[in-house]
């Protein structure tokens, strides 16, 4: 797909610097993704279960699981017996 | 740009439903229109809605054909991601406007919207088009039905890693793009800048922002839409499927304490609509609407309200004093029950704040030579509200849609009809 292309990113790199916030944000997302993937390796989990396993606040777990779902890392599975929480599992295709 | 047109008959500021309708009407009369939209897609807020009241038609099914007709019309030029910086009136049928086009860092004619770039981008930030319920990448197609459906780079959050450029099969990424500001000539101007939503963070007693299972009506709208952030309606606090939801009407409307004493006109009806949709997608759920008055004044609106009651939506005439959170994430609403005069409490597992709409007065400072007048609530002033509602205080400048006051979709379209016919007759006058 990628031949030797002209990389315009080099041009902008000479003009702009990347903020520490952007760097920290990437690191944080990767960490969250890794934690959640680790938790799901053992099998499908609901968000409260993911939150417990990763020690993340449940709302953050929701945000990251849903973002991972959007980009195909995670898929939605069945709902639990109480019809309250869905199980999420790793997308095997990835 | 080669052969770039710098002269148009009309400048339409704002690419929401009112701006599109105005532009289309003028274009069909053979006038050349430049439509300037600050967002990355046209379609305004309507393109983000689930369904519309009182017909429950799918919002996207109504918006997208109009959006594509606007985008395809040969007499309409559209600048997205762009801002009108200054408008000067030089004489009758003679306006000069400076327009800033922000770079997308993606070549519009090369991008196919394939989203390969998104997959490799390492940056995830909150997605403003999903009202922060989920993340998006630094390079992103705004939403699946966006028009144009092409990617853009959020340069402030980009790590300049170059992965997108490497991955793009169409060589569409272009970091050499720069902002471009140019002056254009127009014969008339239509302001269709729409409205802003009330930010409930300004009402700390409701706990929005602090309590994670309280969302705004626009967030719920996204949860209900086909292009939604989750797989279904879920509490953002813990991913639970809610079974007992409350709506708090008039959040930030008809309220002097937050500086917005007027009725937002749409909150009652969109809440009733959402309640009906919720009962459709969560059949076991209970939905309670806390209201002060239900204003169902439009055609078919009262029947729609009655339908909601018939479906089991509970209506409580009550003024919410305070919302607090329980350990399990449920919310306790303390309210004055207006019918009994008693203070009561009720528990719900999710709360939707039906936020009001506010004037978007950013267009004010854009007018340099002659000041555009606003009304007491910062909406564009209609100088002859009864007889010529699209007229502003500047001859040749007209107002369409919610830029002149709160209104629903059909009224915005009607208003755009008035604005385009006023603009057309102004354009047709012989000097
Ligand atoms: S920029 Fe390239 S990779 Fe991204 S959507 Fe456009 S064509 Fe696809
Ligand atoms: S250069 Fe920026 S937008 Fe492109 S992949 Fe890297 S972080 Fe994402």
Write the layout of secondary structure elements.
The complex is a heterodimer of chains A (94) and B (431).
Chain A: H1 9-13, H2 20-41, H3 47-54, H4 58-70, E1 74-79, E2 86-90
Antiparallel strand pairs in A: 1-2
Helix pairs in contact in A: 2-4, 3-4
Chain B: E1 7-13, H1 17-28, E2 33-36, E3 51-52, E4 57-58, H2 59-72, E5 76-79, E6 82-91, E7 94-101, H3 116-120, E8 124-126, E9 135-137, E10 139-140, E11 152-153, H4 163-167, E12 180-191, E13 195-197, E14 214-216, H5 217-224, E15 244-251, H6 267-281, E16 286-291, H7 301-311, E17 314-325, E18 331-337, E19 342-348, E20 350-355, E21 357-359, E22 397-399, H8 409-428
Parallel strand pairs in B: 1-2, 1-12, 2-5, 12-22, 14-20, 15-16, 15-20, 16-17
Antiparallel strand pairs in B: 3-4, 6-7, 7-12, 8-9, 10-11, 13-21, 17-18, 18-19
One iron/sulfur cluster (SF4) binds next to helix 4 of chain B.
What report would you give on this structure?
The complex is a heterodimer of chains A (about 90) and B (about 425). Chain A has about 90 residues and is mainly alpha-helical. Chain A has helices spanning about 10-15, 20-40, 45-55, 60-70, and strands spanning about 75-80, 85-90. Chain A has a two-stranded antiparallel sheet. In chain A, α2 packs across α4. The two termini of chain A are about 20 Å apart. Chain B is an alpha/beta fold. Chain B is built from eight helices and 22 strands. Chain B has helices spanning about 15-30, 60-70, 115-120, 165, 215-225, 265-280, 300-310, 410-430; strands at about 5-15, 35, 50, 55-60, 75-80, 80-90, 95-100, 125, 135, 140, 150-155, 180-190, 195, 215, 245-250, 285-290, 315-325, 330-335, 340-350, 350-355, 355-360, 395-400. In chain B, strands 1, 2, 5, 6, 7, 12 and 22 form a seven-stranded mixed β-sheet that branches. In chain B, a hairpin with a 4-residue loop joins β18 and β19 (about 340-350). In chain B, α5 runs parallel beside α6 (about 265-280). The longest helix of chain B has 20 residues, at about 410-430. Chain B is globular, with a radius of gyration of 23 Å. The structure holds iron/sulfur cluster (SF4) (2 copies). One iron/sulfur cluster binds near residues 120, 121, 160, 161 and 163 of chain B.
């Amino acid at each position: 797909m990628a031949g030797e292309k002209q990389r315009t990113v080099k041009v902008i790199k000479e003009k702009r610097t990347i903020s520490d916030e952007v760097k920290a944000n990437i690191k944080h997302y990767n960490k969250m993704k890794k934690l959640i993937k680790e938790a799901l390796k053992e099998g499908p989990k609901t968000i409260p279960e993911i939150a417990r396993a990763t020690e993340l606040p449940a709302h953050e777990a929701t945000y990251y699981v849903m973002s991972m779902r959007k980009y195909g890392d995670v898929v939605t599975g069945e709902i639990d017996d109480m019809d309250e929480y869905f199980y999420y599992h790793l997308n095997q295709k990835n | 740009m080669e052969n770039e047109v710098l002269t148009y008959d009309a400048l339409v500021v704002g690419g929401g439903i009112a701006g599109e309708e105005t532009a289309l009407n003028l274009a069909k009369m053979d006038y050349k229109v430049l439509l300037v939209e600050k967002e990355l897609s046209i379609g305004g807020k309507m393109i983000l809605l689930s369904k519309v009241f009182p017909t429950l038609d799918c919002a996207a099914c109504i918006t997208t054909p109009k959006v594509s007709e606007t985008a395809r019309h040969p007499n309409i030029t559209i600048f997205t991601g762009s801002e009108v910086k200054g408008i000067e009136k030089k004489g009758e049928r003679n306006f000069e406007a400076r327009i800033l086009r922000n770079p997308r860092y993606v070549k519009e004619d090369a991008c196919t919207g394939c989203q390969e770039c998104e997959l490799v981008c390492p940056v995830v930030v909150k997605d403003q088009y999903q009202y922060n319920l989920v993340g998006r990448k630094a390079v992103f197609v705004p939403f699946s039905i966006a028009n144009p459906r092409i990617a853009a780079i959020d340069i402030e959050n980009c790590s300049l890693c170059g992965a997108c450029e490497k991955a793009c099969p169409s060589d569409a990424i272009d970091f050499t793009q720069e902002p471009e500001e140019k002056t254009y000539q127009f014969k008339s101007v239509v302001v269709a800048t729409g409205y802003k939503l009330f930010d409930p963070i300004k009402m700390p007693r409701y706990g929005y922002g602090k309590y994670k299972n309280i969302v705004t009506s626009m967030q719920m709208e996204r949860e209900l839409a086909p292009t939604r952030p989750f797989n279904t309606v879920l509490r953002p606090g813990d991913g639970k499927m809610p079974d007992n939801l409350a709506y708090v009407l008039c959040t930030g409307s008809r309220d002097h304490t937050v500086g917005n004493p007027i009725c937002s006109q749409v909150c009652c009806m969109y809440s009733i609509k959402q309640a009906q949709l919720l009962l459709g997608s969560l059949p076991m759920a209970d939905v309670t609407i806390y209201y002060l008055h239900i204003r169902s004044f439009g055609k078919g609106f009262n029947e729609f309200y009655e339908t909601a009651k018939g479906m089991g939506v509970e209506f409580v005439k009550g003024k919410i004093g305070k919302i607090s959170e329980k350990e399990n994430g449920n919310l306790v609403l303390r309210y004055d029950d207006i019918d009994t005069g008693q203070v009561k409490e009720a528990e719900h597992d999710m709360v939707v704040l039906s936020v009001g709409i506010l004037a978007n007065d950013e267009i004010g400072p854009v007018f340099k030579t002659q000041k555009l007048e606003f009304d007491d609530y910062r909406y564009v002033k209609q100088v002859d509200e009864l007889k010529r509602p699209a007229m502003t205080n500047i001859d040749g400048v007209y107002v369409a849609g919610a830029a002149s006051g709160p209104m629903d979709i059909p009224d915005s379209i009607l208003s755009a009809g008035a604005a385009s016919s006023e603009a057309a007759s102004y354009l047709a006058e012989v000097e």
